[in-house]
Amino acid sequence: MAKVFFGVFKDKVIDNRGKPHEEWTEAPIKIDENFNGKKLDVFVNWDGFLVFEEGADVLQALANYMYRISDYGCCGRCFPGRMGTRLVAEGLEKIIRGDEDASFDDVYDMAVSINESAKCTVAPTAVIPVMRYIEHFKDLKNPSNKDKEIEYVKHLTAPCTAGCPANVKIPEFIEAIKDARYLEALAIIRTTMPLPGVCGRVCPHPCEANCRRGLVDEPVSIMVLKRTPWDYEYYHHKKPEIPIYREPTDKKVAIVGAGPAGLTAAYYLAQLGHKVKIYEMLPEPGGMVAVGIPDYREPRFLLRREVEIIQSLGVEIQYNTKLGRDIFLDDLKKDYDSVLIAIGAFKSRDMGVEGEKDGYEGVLESGIDFLQKFSLGEEIKIGNRVVVVGGGNTAIDCVRTAIRLGSTDVNLVYRRSRAEMPAEDYEVADAEEEGVKFHFLINPVKIIAKDGKVVGLECIKMQLGEPDESGRRKPEPVPGSNFVIECDTVIPAIGQFPDLSFLKEEDGIKVTKWNTISVKEDLYMTDVPGVFSAGDCEWGPNTVVKAIGAGRWAAIMMDRYMMEGDVYLTDKEKLELTLYKNKVFDKKEIVCEPHTIHRVHQAKLSPEERIKHFEEIEKPYTEQQAYLEATRCLRCVRMAMVGLEN
Asked: Which of 178, 483, 558, 580 has a C-alpha 20 to 30 A away from that of 324?
């Protein structure tokens, strides 16, 4: 952790001048003192500034910051943001030069005026480090070392963008939607996410948990807005315009897995001119999105369209081909310049209850197996009285699918409380509306069978104890509280993990204690040069958007490995990841209440209608609805900057 010489951050003044370095205060953010191999001189953002080296030219850094804000950070629609920020920068430059008319008071007054009058929140927050310097350190005789060469690296972000694993430029694409520039909005999204039609439907939208509008009323409906321009392109039969950034190279890439991570990596590698081939074990693309998410949430014909767009870039997909059975890692390493393993997490965990492995009719292998077989049109036997065990989105998809298949008594058993369910709350609410019965703080202990067929599931009541390693209170059984839920079908859906049985010791690829593939942090390469991994097989089952983000970063690293022989982060990327890990959103921030426009909710089929079929239940915004929701965005663009010694 870097140590601070002096600075002001979130109104906390830090002053270690006159103290030896060992006694300096640790930075209030997680930032490396050795920043990408360079010495960290100064850090500036919307919360203040931090100085890490004696002799740092803080005023020059602040002036540079304000020039960058004026050039890149403002929309140009108001005078304080467009011109005021430049005047502040020029005022600081005058002070640095020692001009006779230079005045900290004048600069401060301009900064206060911008802070109070600019239309959006970009310029008002940008002047905060300048104001704090003048308030606390304007009399500082800073021993600037003019011989030092400082490189200033900046990154534009937003609380929502920094909360998105795919780093989607959310304020920018919402601004384009507000102006009805739908195809431009879609192009902005695709710079970091090639599957907006998917993510606009099934993303758990962590961005919305980081939306400052949510501190006032409700967050902006970012997920549905992300879907809007994709739907516009699809339903208006617009031909996607996908840019190609490089002429074809002579490099060949093999990707194992056509799920979100693999498809994303293929998209960006193809844009960079590489020849990409995907090997997929299923008979169609999409991975868990295709066979683990029912059509009422993500229609597969729309998913297939997203894949067609990726294939139009020259990406080849070979189906029904499994790693370790039909293809082997040794052969891929010989035939390709780079290999990405993105196989997902398809193996299911056992419940660990008595009778689970006794072969009783009515005990299904797993929730994922149930959903996959149904999606692929394979025969599945499901009774009228169903119990699904689990609390994630897979469990919810299982009970809602059972309802649609005609089961009339559908139950979900979960060992924790509803508040601790990992499933999306609105999915749980939808399932309740459709008739699913929820049993919270209940855990199965035994399969009850008669004549080889399931007739019930014995359960025990649970109570929450002390928090476990996940931070959630650990469920503990209540002695003597056993009871039986009568049923003819039991579906375990308590979690998945990757099947890494294809790996051999001589492959040299390390596996973590969680049975995932070990990669170099933020670089996505295994210990074997040229072999990369991304997605659920890297960290275990997670979200579609996280897999997409990992796929893009993996593509960047694979391109560098093939074209430069090395993997690394640029200074800008290092700063971007630093912001992502520190988080930009401040839950305690007091936000002035904007003009009230209530969150616009998309139309949804009634429970009575939607349980009859698997058609998509949530409908797209109309253009008017999209405009109204887009106007709720507070455009919270922020800029961070580091000064690095070359």
From this structure: 558
